[in-house]
């Protein structure tokens, strides 16, 4: 046993200092796609049928990548309402224009994010921009539905147009890649989105063979969605359009890329309240959904100018 005396490094002390890894609960495969209007060929990566796994995120539609030919008529989705949550649209390629009855509106292009709080209710349209319609080209976007706690579901509608230049772009060590901080914070860099509850939303790019450890607060639901590439997340492999769902417990999320990878990292403080949704409305009870339908039909969510 004399040999063991030559090992002098206090390895245990270092290991004890590492935060506990979040356990992988599931690797979700993408479902079949469907069209939202004529502008958004989407796959619904998750919905709120199992809200506990992803709360405060209720739903995620992954649109494209899809090659739209040049056209003379704008594609998109016409006037429709929302109540009780926020829609967050992240553009990777293409261009989208939005108008809502709360007076919000704007155009977002690659790298930009639109953060719309429907709250008590808006009517809006989401269309390809005229320039993009005329040029055509690849379209790729993500739309997230972010829940609002019961006490804030009827908050005043709000619109945040977050342009690429306002989103911190943080280089990872060892040329592993970079992190764009849309919401929350990464290593002290704060994202521009104003959120009602604590959450992190990071646009992560890893270079082939690059890897990094990310920290999401213990108690946060945490997921990693792979737009493109191939990665290992805390030991589980995932490729394009797959999502890794991690446990609320623990903090560390180790991601290693086999090829150049584009990822969306989501973590958030859970809103553990009843979720009752119907179409474009997500409330807490059936009675609130009936009220939302009445309010929309009677014009109380406004109209587009
Ligand atoms: Mn909408």
What does this structure look like?
- It is a single chain.
- With about 300 residues, the protein is mainly beta.
- The protein has 4 helices and 26 strands.
- The chain has a 7-stranded antiparallel beta sheet. A 7-stranded antiparallel beta sheet has the order 2-3-4-11-6-9-12.
- Bound molecules: manganese (II) ion (MN).
- Manganese (II) ion binds near residues 80, 87, 124 and 126.
- Manganese (II) ion binds near residues 80, 82, 87 and 126.
Give me a quick take on this structure.
With 305 residues, the protein is mainly beta. Helix content is 10%, strand content 48%.
The counted number of beta strands is 26
| Fraction of residues in helix | under 10%
Number of helices: 4
Shape: globular
Order of helices and strands: HEEEHEEEEEEEHEEEEEEEEEEEEEEEEH
Low-confidence stretches: 1-10
Q: What gyration radius follows from the Cα positions, in whole Å?
A: 21 Å
Q: Provide the structure class.
A: mainly beta
Q: Quick one: biggest sheet?
A: 7 strands, antiparallel
Strand content: over 45%
What is the average per-residue confidence, as pLDDT, rounded to a whole number? 94
- Give the strand line-up of the largest sheet: 1-22-19-24-17-14-13
Ions, cofactors and other bound molecules: manganese (II) ion
Distance between the terminal alpha carbons, to the nearest Å? 83 Å
